[in-house]
Amino acid sequence: MAFGLFDIDGKIAIVTGGTSGIGLMIARGFVRRGVKTYITGRDAGRTAEIAAELSSEGECMALAADLADADGPRRLAEAFAEHESRLDILINNAGASANSALESAEAADWDMVMAVNLRAPFFLVQQLLPFLRAAATEEDPARIINIGSIGGLHIPNWEAHSYGASKAALHHLTRSLTKRLGREKIIVNAIAPGPFPSRLTNTDSDAVKKSVETYIPLGRPGAPEDVEGTVVFLSSRAGAYVNGTTIPLDGGYLAAL
For 223-233, what is the mean pLDDT? Predict the structure, then answer.
């Protein structure tokens, strides 16, 4: 069989927050390419429904997980261990946002955003490290892909202090994990999406449409194929020498600022 530069068939992946938005886009792309995919979500019933839907195209399993809980990563790793002994790809996608306007922000909201967007990815790597090590080889390293945001690369025209700070920190964590894990043949990268249809971004709203038309040179929001293609690249042999970087996936938004 011919060698496929972008082939990821047979790999095992976890996609946190895989029931909607970018996480669902990634999970669907994995499943249809032969990746045994575990999706996580807080709502066990909803997560199981989405996994069953995706299973019509391949293998998809549901793992309930509340990553706002400090013990969530450990419990997720224990649940995963009941099924698998290795993990080829970890997608840290689960995210949260909350009011962070300077005058009205509350500590509980700030802590929740940091817990989901920053603490959980770090401790998921910690708890899943034995499985990533088991999958990692010289020829085909294990992959960690953190889903950051262009909001962590620039300051938007609205107040998003906690969200932006959490994503900027996640980009930095990506680099520090790269330095720590590279010798173990574990690659760590981040993707910083611009506007994609998701629970956090309504790309059909007039405000987002106006922003897209005004600031994005390509004149459109992101589509499922855009994030799917980027993740497949990073997860395959094609991206095996890309390590420690944050890729803006924004249609040229940052470049045109």
Answer: 98
| Whole-number Å distance between alpha carbons of 175 and 243 | 8
Report whether pLDDT(205) > 90. no
pLDDT at site 1: 38
**Helix, strand, coil fractions of the chain, as percent rounded to 5:** 45, 15, 40
Burial 3-30 (b: 16+ CB within 10 A, else e): eeeebbeebbbbbbbbbebbbbbbbbbb
Distance CA 172, CA 156 (A): 19
Q: Which of 163, 215, 241, 253 does the annotation list as catalytic?
A: 163
The neighbour count for residue 233, using CB atoms within 10 Å, is: 17
What architecture does CATH give domain 12-249?
Answer: 3-Layer(aba) Sandwich (3.40)
Q: Please tell me the predicted confidence (pLDDT) of residue 3.
A: 62
pTM above 0.90, yes or no: yes
Average pLDDT, the chain: 95
Cα 211 from chain centre: 24
* 241 in catalytic set: no
Q: Which two tokens stand for residue 247?
A: 């890729």
Tokens of 105: 């922000």
